[in-house]
Amino acid sequence: MNYPSSQKPASKVAIQGELGSNSHVAALDAMASQHPGLSIDIVPCALAAEACEAVQSGVVDFCVLPIENSLHGSVAEHLDLLLTHNLVATGESLLRVRHNVIAAPGVQLADIRQILSHPVALSQCRRWLRAHPHITAVPFYDTAGSVKHLMAESLRDTAGIAPALAATQYGAEVLIAGIEDHPDNFTRFLTLVPAPAPAPPNSNKLSIAFSLEHRPGTLLSALEAFSTAGLNLTKIESRPVQGRPWEYVFFVDLRFEDSVALDRALELLRPHTQMLKELGRYPAA
């Protein structure tokens, strides 16, 4: 069926976390840059695995998943999900993470006795928390979820640490903006769709995962395949293989200009691997 542009069904985008979370912000940014003009509905999921299963099964059209933070490194659980699900990345985006003190309308900072947020967010705001010792930091399941909770319970002595979008989402107010310790706090997100899917025409970045045979020099031979093809490795990381002690999967990101040279490098790599999986070709953020 052909719909007028104003009546097309909205595409569904799964995220891990509540509405108003950093993943919600990232999904809006990713869709605006990668699919401009697309009407979207955000589908919050309690677990990242649920978000991946939703897109793999076709319940949603996209999943936007955090994969790496500039302060804390890779999200190990999400790397593992890329191996166990039949998904492929078609885009990446970078989100500047800002933590804000958010409370119910009319609540003043002097009223606050406890502040809720995800443990990672609390750990990224230690200086501000130390400067306010009368406020007890309480770990909570989600940043935006803390604001949802305090508004639902009409709490007047409680604040949350969350993105500004959470205040808008739940009718709260930002009391203090930008309390994070480090301004260079960025999270990289991948936009995932069911595999197989064509790479965007302007793709210049590849993510892959591979495991190697137990022979001396196999990792060196694998890296030489990329070097010979003139490819620029931007990241390499190992993860243990579940159920096989002391064996590892290597996750590699690389930049390329020539897809033919890239394919040649992958063919040179393949004989050295026990497993090789392309996780996606996409435009670098």
Estimate what percentage of residues fall within beta strands: 25-35%
By CATH, the superfamily of the largest domain comes out as Periplasmic binding protein-like II
- CATH class of the largest domain reads Alpha Beta
Low-confidence stretches: 1-5
What's the architecture of the largest domain, going by CATH? 3-Layer(aba) Sandwich
What does the overall shape look like? Answer: elongated
Largest sheet: 6 strands, mixed
Helix content: 25-40%
Give me the Rg, rounded. Answer: 21 Å
Let me know the number of strands. Answer: 15
Indicate how many domains the architecture comprises. 3
Quote the distance from N terminus to C terminus. 34 Å
Kindly report the CATH topology of the largest domain.
D-Maltodextrin-Binding Protein, domain 2
Q: Indicate the structural class.
A: alpha/beta
What is the string of SSEs from the N terminus onward? Answer: EHEHEEHEEEHHEHEHEEEHEEHE
Return the average pLDDT rounded to an integer.
Answer: 92
Helical segment count:
9
How is this structure best described in words?
With about 280 residues, the chain is of the alpha/beta class. The chain folds into 3 domains: about 100 residues, Periplasmic binding protein-like II (D-Maltodextrin-Binding Protein, domain 2, 3-Layer(aba) Sandwich); about 80 residues, D-Maltodextrin-Binding Protein, domain 2, CATH 3.40.190; about 80 residues, ACT domain (Alpha-Beta Plaits, 2-Layer Sandwich). It contains 9 helices and 15 strands. Strands 1, 2, 3, 4, 5 and 11 form a 6-stranded mixed sheet that branches. The longest helix is centred in the first third of the chain and has 13 residues. It is elongated. The N terminus is likely disordered.
